[in-house]
Amino acid sequence: MFPSHQQTKEYSEVLRQLCTEAEDSRLISGVENLAQEHGNCVYKEMLMLLVGKHFGSDLSSRYWREAIEHCWQIYRPEYAQRGFRPALLDYLRNVVGEVSDPRIIEADYLHNITRSSVTDGLTGLYNQTYFKQILETTIVNQRRSLDQNFALVLLDLDHFKQYNDRCGHLCGDEALRLCANVITGALRDGDMAVRYGGEEFALLLPNVDRHTAFSVAERIRREIEQFSFPKEELLDSGTLTISGGIAVFPDNGETSEEIIQYADKELYKAKEVRNSIYNISSDRRRSTRKPIRSLVEYASFDGALYRPALSIDISEKGMGIGCESELFEGMTLSVRLTRPYWPVNRHLFAKVRQVRRQNELIYVGLEFDESLGSLDDLLAHNWKSLAPQR
To answer: Rounded to two decimals, what is the model's pTM?
Structure first.
């Protein structure tokens, strides 16, 4: 049985008083009491008053109760009793995606409560605890919808310990704040950025496939690489960079633990190269690498003496070499492939993407500025006759 117009008018006045005068605990109990008498239309009316949007009566009842549960999930107990309205706002905006610009009573006061509980004090991004709760809720909602997925991206600043040690922790804090600004500026509406811990960040990207997630993460990587951070010239690489790994629900996991673990594994692979967003296509590129051991010459700048190195493998995009020099990630090298050690003479420029010790040599992973083209053309059929005999 629906309430009469007069009844609706009477409880609407009570709801308005609850909105403007009551604490959240009184607001909730007052609404529940009215709903017992007048039904789910009370929740509909209250949500209209709080966020300025109409929902159906039954849907409003569901949103109201789930928002109460959400409140207890995201707040510490001492905040939960007075944090319902910001929790409702967050639930409708970030969990079910029903509102994008809601109006809510006492917004400044409630916003401050929210930030103190769910954000990181240094960067202003959401914190890890809140992120994991949202991730759990997102997974539950995605299972209901069955037709949408989302991506999790883990990002980690490269050589940040070296940056802190050489530039100081104040510069380190400033770099984290600036990095957070770059990340949020590169995101789409509805994306979520998190300070996951230390120099690590996380992104929750709704309704995207791996290709789109990679595009977002790669845009952030490029902007971080090009951004001028304080005293970054003191780094061995000369610039502060970031690496990342991607996991997509449900392809890469169906629980929060599986999703996080998968993204973390991809991040680890990216950190082997540095300044990189690891992608599945990287595996395909790696599979086309051909093991070739022959003489390579390299120089660190124009006019420098060329030094010998041993090629280890090569692809259209880059090559691995073993050398005795101390090279640094981010350096650009001039590389020469010359006869008779190679079928043709080639002069290339390549960026150092990875440096690690491998037995007595230093392994250096290079990325060419321009693709070599077909390897079959470079490694011609007369390769064996031209290559030096061992």
So the answer is: 0.51
